[in-house]
Design a protein that fits this description.
Layout: H1 5-18, E1 22-26, E2 31-35, E3 45-49, E4 80-83, E5 88-91, E6 107-108, E7 113-119, E8 122-127, E9 132-137, E10 144-145, E11 150-156
Antiparallel strand pairs: 1-2, 2-3, 4-11, 5-7, 5-10, 6-9, 7-8, 9-11
Length: 157
């Protein structure tokens, strides 16, 4: 996640909409903590930790990428982007203990669910408009995404 004014505004908007008094976002090498006083609409404290190199840990078995030996990953000219249609929280699966809907190297069909974006306590399924193959997953599970942020890069079949 890139720390910029739009990201901070999106986090503040979520806090306001959900009536939260604090919000902690920890994405491994980035940690943002925002607190506000009860009744105040303005953040009273924002803490930002400098990015740090985290030890690479293997993904849980159900989120391991599918081998993509037959895919030419060097030819990015034909890649398409699937972008977020809303501000919310990105989830790769319907439940934490369930496998991801799609992973890098995996093929999908038109109408397949690719992910869920939670916005204002509603779970919105993001479905594929065309068949294709996932070339890159651009956001992490549980990450706050902005409108128009790239979620996946794909090659259409």
């Amino acid at each position: 996640m890139e720390l910029n004014i739009e990201t901070l505004q999106a986090l503040a908007r979520i806090m306001s909409e959900e009536k939260l008094t604090s919000l902690v976002l920890d994405q491994g090498n980035l940690k943002i903590e925002i607190k506000r006083e009860i009744g105040s609409m303005q953040p009273s404290e924002i803490t930002y930790q400098e990015p740090r190199m985290a030890a690479m840990e293997p993904l849980p078995h159900h989120t391991q990428p599918v081998a993509a030996d037959a895919i030419d990953i060097t030819d990015t000219a034909h890649w398409k982007e699937i972008k977020s249609p809303m501000v919310g929280v990105f989830y790769q699966s319907s439940q934490p203990d369930k496998p991801a809907y799609v992973t890098k190297g995996q093929s999908f069909s038109e109408g397949d669910t690719l992910c869920i974006i939670e916005a204002m306590k509603l779970m919105n399924e993001i479905t594929a408009e065309t068949p294709g193959t996932i070339m890159e997953v651009c956001v992490g599970n549980g990450q706050v995404v902005e409108f128009g942020q790239v979620l996946y890069r794909i090659v259409e079949d």
